[in-house]
Design brief:
Blueprint (H helix, E strand, L loop, with lengths): L1 E12 L2 E12 L3 E5 L6 H8 L7 E6 L2 E2 L2 H6 L1 E3 L11 H11 L7 H11 L15 H13 L5 E5 L7 H16 L3 E5 L3 H7 L2 E6 L2 E7 H7 L4 E7 L12 E8 L5 E8 L5 H9 L4 E6 L4 H14 L1
Parallel strand pairs: 3-8, 3-9, 6-7, 7-8
Antiparallel strand pairs: 1-2, 1-4, 4-5, 9-10, 11-13, 11-14, 12-13
Helix pairs in contact: 3-4
Length: 308
Amino acid sequence: MNILEVKNISKTYGKKKVLNQISLVVPQGKIYGLLGPNGAGKTTLIRIINQIIASDEGEVWFKGSPMTRNQVEKLGYLPEERGLYTKMKVGEHLIYMAQLRGIKSLNAPKVVKNYMREFDILDWWNMKVEQLSKGMQQKLQFIIAIMHSPDFVILDEPFSGFDPVNAEFIKNKILELKEQGVTFMLSTHRMDSVEELCDHVTLIHKANKVLDGEKHKIKSQFKTNKYEIIYSHTSRPVESETPVFQIISNEKNDNPDWMTLTVSLKPGRTVNELLHYLLDKTEIHAFRELIPGMNEIFISLVKDVENE
């Protein structure tokens, strides 16, 4: 089942087209990556989904019908910009936000304290929000986004301001909630987060969707038939020209007894042929296919669009 469908959304500011006929489908229970360079239109699309601004064309459907204001209010949302009342104390601020999200007044303090205890910030209770660092405020905003147990959460640059320890904590919390059936839309520039978290990826650039699909299928689509082989340095040398593969590099490994060979298969040749050829000549210690990461794919596609 799909929890969210964006249908042919367009948005123009003055003469600038910010979104051009964007359509996407978010499967329930998945983590959906919304990617793009600065100014691509990601935040505009998120604000349209949240009904903060209206689109010029298109529709947003939620759970099989047009999105209503009541449904929007039940979503979880962590915006890229700060939306906190800096003069309030942390405890009262979270209780106030809990009540705005439909948690009953009698239950709100208990819910807030449970989350603050889980996130190890209970000692912040009487601190003013303005005393908190960027990363500390980001923790509050993440709690606000999930405290009312939404089944769909939009996170716009959720790891901004976090040190590695807190980024890892938030990542694990996202994965824990996913296991409980929560769906996430994740907008980020951190490709390592995309690699670790996302099941599905859409890339927007210059108002247009340029990539859309399951992450593992996208990575497979961009494979280049390159392989890395670690073999014994004492073996017979591998010829620079073979009928099966072309050598890209052949370098010393960190282990002085080993060499690292990078090759590309020639057209029509198979991995089995590659291994058979090498095993006849050398002792292999490790073998892996070199599949491009999301960062490499992202940069390649953005450059392609820039050159059009």
